[in-house]
Amino acid sequence: MWFGAIDERHLYASLRLSVHLFMRDSGAPCSEKPSATGFVMRRGLFEKDPGILVTNRHVLDPDYNRVPKGKKLDKIAVSGFLQETHLGDIVGPAKPVQFKILDPVPVFADSEADIAVIDLRSAKIPGGCPQLTQLPSMQLATTDDFQSRIHVATEIITPGYPSIEQKVTKRPFLVSGTIASDPREAAEIGPKEYKDCVICHSFSWGGMSGSPVFCRLVAEPEDPKSWDEQEVHGPLTEVRLAGVNRGHLKIGGSNEGALSYFAKSTVLDQLLGKVGVKKYPDTWRM
C-alpha cells in the first residue's frame, strides 16, 4: 500500500479537527473553535480497531507552552474522507466520514515536540467510530532513517485542511516541499532551538497543524539482483511517515507560510508505545 506514487490514500489520511473549548471558571462554551488536522495510526498489524488519533499538543491543550488561558477541552468534531482500496488499488470515490469525541482524554509527549494522541477505542464517540484510513506503525521513519536516508532536500508531502480566506477547505489539500535543515540535528533559527524537529521549505497555514508529513525515499533492496532491475526500470520508492506538522514559522512579509516545521516520527513512536501501539521488526514494513 505504501510503495510507489503518492495518491489519494495519502491525501485522505488527513482528518479535519474542529476543537470545542469551554471556560473553566464559568463553564460557558468558547465562541472560538480552533481548526486543525489529525490522522490515525493503526494499533496492531491486522487488528480491527479504531486506532490512535494523532495531532499537535497545542491543538488540544489550551495551556500549552505554560500560558494558562482559563480554557478547557470540551469535545472534538472530526470529519474527513475514507478512500477504499482493493488489493492495493483505489476503488471508487472517497466517502465522507464524521464523528465527535466527547470529553477527550489526550496523552501528550514528554518532550517539547508538541504531539498529542487520543485512543479512539476508549474514547466517548456517540454511535461508534466509523472506518478510517489508518497508517501502520511500520511506516514510521526511524532514527536510522534520519541519520542515513532522510537528508537536506529530501521531498516531503503534507496533506491537511488549511484555512483560506478565513474558511477551512472542505477537502484536504496536499502540498509538497523539501527538508531545509539538517534532519540529524535539532533545528535552529537564531537563538531558538527546535528539539526533535525539522524545518522545511514547504507551505503550511492555519488549520494544517497536526498533519502527517510523509517523505518518499529510495528503497534499498536486500537482493543484489534487484539493483540490476533498478538500473532498467528506475529506483523503487517507498513512503515513510517522517513526523507531525507543527505549523509555519512566523518569518513575516510575503514569505509568511513558506517555512514550516515538523516533530520527528521518533518522538511519535515513543508516545504510541505508551498507548499500546505494537512495534514490529523493520523487515516487516509494508
- Helix-strand sequence: HEEEHEEEEEEHEEEEEEEEHEEH
Helix percentage: 10-25%
Radius of gyration: 19 Å
Number of strands: 19
Oligomer: single chain
Averaging pLDDT over every residue, what do you get? 86
Strand order of the largest sheet: 7-4-1-2-3-9-8
Could you give a short account of the major beta sheet?
Answer: 7 strands, antiparallel
Distance between the termini: 7 Å
Low-confidence stretches: none
Our count of helices gives 5
The class by helix and strand makeup works out as: mainly beta
Tell me the overall shape: globular
Strand content: 35-45%
Folded structure, characterized:
The protein is mainly β and about 290 residues long. It is about 10% helix and about 35% strand. Strands 7-4-1-2-3-9-8 form a seven-stranded antiparallel sheet. The model has no long low-confidence stretch (mean pLDDT about 85). The longest helix has 10 residues, at about 265-275. It has helices at about 10, 55-60, 145-150, 225-235, 265-275; strands spanning about 15-25, 35-40, 50-55, 70-80, 85, 90, 95-100, 105-110, 115-120, 155-160, 165, 165-170, 175-180, 185-190, 190-195, 195-200, 210-220, 235-250, 260-265. It contains five helices and 19 strands.
Short key terms for the protein model shown above:
six-stranded antiparallel beta barrel; 19 strands; 5 helices; mainly beta; 286 residues; globular; seven-stranded antiparallel β-sheet
